[in-house]
Structure formats: structure tokens, C-alpha cells
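Good morning N.,

You mentioned wanting to compare the apo and holo forms, so I went ahead and generated the holo version with S-adenosylmethionine. This is what I fed in:
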Amino acid sequence: SCKGRVSTSMTRSARFFVQGMHERGDRIAIDDADVHHINAVLRLHAGDRIEIVDSASRAFVAELEGDSRHLGAKLVEEVDVLPDDDVRIDVAQALPKGAKMDFVIEKATELGAAAIVPFTSERTVVRSPAGERVARWNRIARSAAEQSGRREIPVVATPISYAGLLRRFGEYDCTIFAWESANETLRERLPGLLRNASRVLVVVGPEGGFTLEESAAARNAGAVVVSLGRRILRTETAALALLVVLDYERAAQTE
Ligand code: SAM
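and this is what came out, ligand included:
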């Protein structure tokens, strides 16, 4: 590692993301939402240490300064943090009902998703949400990224149509489309799928599933259509199951 840097140890300080690019010695203001978390949840005060990650993904040990109303931090030392994974896995999730999307975003962030792309399809019952909801999803991704020690915050996109989603398949080395009626299973296809792939998209349908036509259109657009096994998973479980399996396979292949 570069001279003057320290590696983060097993126990690390709470991590917060800030806007802008910074250097050691900089003093930075802490966001109101983070101030609340630092004061009320973590119960940290001036003199305590946190970790700050800036917009260029550089991480610093920082010392809190000021009082609970005007909390700032001084960047004491740059640290090496584990980079996010070299294989980038994005999750396309059909809009589920109620607060399930919050759950998917939080868990997908913990499990390393690089981006989350909500979409509508024939059987989604929820219509595209207002901008405020998307902003809220991005806040959920941010706090889950902080909590789980990610270097990057996954972006939650504004929901797109199914046709728009199909057009995006070409951006990926591999698109894995989860369809319970598929002839092939993920297990059969998996070893070859991640080889030489650096951008992967997984696609999960809504509560009512995908139609036959939608799965055929996905295959035509280049997706690998696979079943995840004999049991039907809820929509909010499927993406998480896929992320766990892919992460395991990626780790096994890079060992
Ligand atoms: N169409 C089904 C029904 O209504 O009985 C189930 C849909 S399932 C609740 C929601 C989504 O999760 C599906 O569109 C699919 O993407 C994914 N999924 C759930 N179980 C799956 C499995 N065993 N294999 C592949 N995909 C699955």
C-alpha cells in the first residue's frame, strides 16, 4: 500500500460518505442526517473517530470536532479500504408492492449490488413512483452502504419500462433473467456465466411473475433465462438469493 497509509483493521469506525474530493487535513461539515446518526445512535462526540469516504472513493480516518449542533470532522489520515468487487452486478427489480422495494435496496446494497434499476412490467401493480420516493431509495442505499462498509453507494435509478430495460441488456457482459418456468437452472449455467464477465445484470419479476412473452423477449434481447430451483421465491427474496450465489461463485473463481 502507499506510504503513509494504514490499512483498516477488522474493527473499523462507522463510515460516512461526503460530497467532493478531499485531502488529509481538510475539515468537513457533516450532513444533518449523519449528525443525528452520530449523536443519537452511535453516541459519538468531539474527539471520537469515524471514517469518511469522499466522492473519489478515497477513505480517511477523521476526528469529530464541534458540538452536537455543528458537527464537523478533520481528516486525519488516508486509509486503504477494500475495493468494491471487480465484477459489477446490477439488479433490475420489477416494482413490488408496499415497502418491499426499501427492503430489496437495503439488502442488495449489503450484498454488493453496484446499481439497482426498478422497472415496470405487464404484471407490476405499482405504477412508477414520484421523484421523492426515488430520492428516499437512494438515501436507503447510502445508509446501507455506510453500515456495510462499502466504498461506493449503489445508485437507485428512476424506474424504467420493460422495453427500456430490454434495451439496456446490451450494456452487460451477461444478463441473468430469473424465470421460475425456465428449462435451465442457474446452477447448471453458473460456472460459465461469470467467466470473463465484468458487468452482470440480474432481472427479477414482480409478485405475479413475468409473462411468457416477456421471458421470450428477454431471451431474444440476449438474456440467459434460468430457474432458481424448485421453490417459488417471493420477488423480494429472488434478487437477494441471486446476489449471494453470484458472489459466492465470483469468489470461488478468483481464488
Ligand atoms: N409467477 C409466479 C406466481 O405468481 O406464482 C411467481 C412469481 S415470483 C413470486 C416473483 C419473481 O421472482 C419471478 O418473476 C422471478 O423473477 C423470481 N423467482 C421466484 N422464484 C423463482 C424461481 N424458482 N426461479 C426463477 N425465478 C424465480
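The pocket of S-adenosylmethionine is lined by residues 178-180, 204-205, 207-210, 227-229, 231-235, 238 (CB under 6 Å).

Happy to go through it together on a call whenever suits you.

Best,
F.
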